[in-house]
């Protein structure tokens, strides 16, 4: 993947800036955050990554991508803690921003005004396809916005959505391939759907199986996703069909 990276720090600048990396689950947000922080460290800048303490899926003190790339991180309970902990940091990384309180926007603004490069990643939409605060607000004030896409596991198109594949209507529901899969706008349903369990096991065992399935699913009439998308169809739910 090649992503254009905003220009690296000019130390004489009075102000820093905000970079937002957003997109669906599995789109490479965490990998891109890790890449940018590593490059900054090579350039002898001090870096620190923060994540919300709620996100303990893989490790308490690491940011880990779905491809198992990892860097150490500091878990925080509130956005304002970042201000205290990032006092001597040139480049501040913030992962899973959708789990922070709205105050994160002001925290990022203060850090940037204080001369820091702030790199924030997060989901721009929830499982219903609704904007996931505070990412939209951060996109509005950021100097740079990078929107990434995964590959739709149904048709192979650009996945802009995170399809929930387990029951539950809480907005916050942690998970990975056990609970979500990336889908394009045509294949996405704004409510949880049931998918074939064999398919999930294949996803966990070997990502290449996803590619094999993509190429057959688009033309197959017995696609397990299309056949089973019947879990919870809320009457009031907005539909994109
Ligand atoms: N359908 C998919 N499309 C693209 N990448 C996928 C898909 N499913 C799994 N992946 C894996 O997810 C990795 C990206 O993980 P990560 O950076 O953690 O994404 P994000 O932070 O956006 O959820 C990819 O490099 C790839 O190995
Ligand atoms: C769509 C959606 C996702 N989540 C959760 C699921 C994961 O724990 C994270 C996203 O992680 P990733 O690094 O972007 O893969 O968010 C949620 O709680 N609610 C949702 O609607
Ligand atoms: Zn699709």
From TrEMBL:
Name this polypeptide is given: Thymidine kinase
Naturally occurring in which organism (per UniProt): Longibacter salinarum
GO BP annotation list: DNA biosynthetic process; thymidine metabolic process
Keyword hit for DNA damage: no
Gene Ontology MF: a single term: thymidine kinase activity
Assigned keywords, A-Z: ATP-binding, Cytoplasm, DNA synthesis, Kinase, Metal-binding, Nucleotide-binding, Transferase, Zinc
InterPro entries documented for this protein: P-loop_NTPase (IPR027417), Thymidine_kinase (IPR001267), Thymidine_kinase_CS (IPR020633)
Reaction equation(s) it catalyzes: thymidine + ATP = dTMP + ADP + H(+)
Residues of the active site: 96 (proton acceptor)
Quaternary structure (record): Homotetramer.
Main EC class the enzyme belongs to: transferase
Location of this chain's protein in the cell: Cytoplasm
Spans annotated as Disordered: 214-241
UniProt-listed Pfam families: TK
Any single GO CC term annotated in Swiss-Prot or TrEMBL for this entry: cytosol
EC code: 2.7.1.21
Family of the protein in this entry: Belongs to the thymidine kinase family.
Residue sites binding ATP per the record: 23-30, 95-98
Binding site for Zn(2+): 152, 155, 184, 187
Family matches, as PANTHER family: THYMIDINE KINASE, THYMIDINE KINASE, CYTOSOLIC
